[in-house]
Specification:
89 residues; mainly alpha; 2 strands; two-stranded antiparallel sheet; rod-shaped; membrane
């Protein structure tokens, strides 16, 4: 039998108690729901951050790929020419 703290009054209570003997705060059920909602929230936040990062990189890639900047086009054109020349020899 382990002891935990009551979320309401912070006194030590048994982990098997249905309610806190000091303040009457119900322990069973509410504690589980809080943990599940926090887990779902964190999982949603992680997925959202991951999605935003992927979208950011896709936009950056498409902007760089379709850039009309002459210097970038010259460098990529020179690189393409060098690769083609290397493999055709």
């Amino acid at each position: 039998m382990a002891l935990t703290n009551c979320p309401e009054c912070k006194k030590e209570i048994s982990n098997r108690a249905e309610a806190c003997p000091s303040c009457g705060f119900p322990i069973r059920g509410k504690k589980i729901v809080v943990k599940q909602s926090q887990g779902i929230f964190l999982r949603t936040m992680n997925f959202g951050c991951f999605t935003v990062i992927i979208i950011f990189f896709l936009i950056a890639y498409s902007l760089l790929r379709t850039s009309s900047h002459p210097k970038i086009n010259k460098i990529t054109g020179d690189a393409k020419t060098a690769i083609i020349n290397r493999f055709t020899k």
